[in-house]
Amino acid sequence: MGIFSRLFKIGQSEAHAVVDKLENPIKMTEQGIRDMKKDLSKTLESLAEVKAMAIRSKRELEQSKSAAQDYENKAILILKKAEDGSLSVEDADRLASEALMKKEQLLETVARNEAEINQFDSNISKLDASVSKLRSNISHYENELKTLKARARVSEATKKINKSLAGVDSDSTIAMLEKMKDKVNQQEAVAEAYGDIADQGKSVDDEIDSVLKDSPNLKASSALEALKAKMKK
Fold this sequence. Notes:
Largest sheet: none
Number of domains: 2
Number of helices: 7
Order of helices and strands: HHHHHHH
CATH architecture of the largest domain: Orthogonal Bundle
Strand content: under 5%
Helix content: over 70%
């Protein structure tokens, strides 16, 4: 009952403090329920033993009552034999007294049996109440445990999702994407730098040709003007 008393005395701050300190409350609660089932099994064994003793006492009680009545009947028959002369008065009185003494002894046994039966019935009533309470508690805490397990699974899943969305995990997808973005930005900056260096190494002719690369008829026009000047001469 040690774990049971620590886990299931609802409303006591000491029990709550113990639960708070447990590394795995679910496993400890499961152990507590197993202990309660062991207690139930022992209580049922005790109940069966007490009921068996009560049944035996009730059987002995009926037997003692019957035997006591039988000795009384025998005493009556013995006295009748003295009345009809088939037995002397002295013998009849002696034997009838012996029969009545045995009757009284049996009546004392009856009284003891009745007291025992009353005690047994009281114990049986208490044990029945304990069995009923244990069964009710086991059912209640098993249902509570199912709910606790379900809540634990949901809270763990929710924790993982929220942790991922909040970017708490440094190895999460969000963190990896940020690292990749930084890397791409750096590569683009390096490429642009190399482009600037390449532009600084161009000659004047390269710059001219670069400016005039979109005027394909320029050379033809120049040649035509030169030809016309030559014909005038």
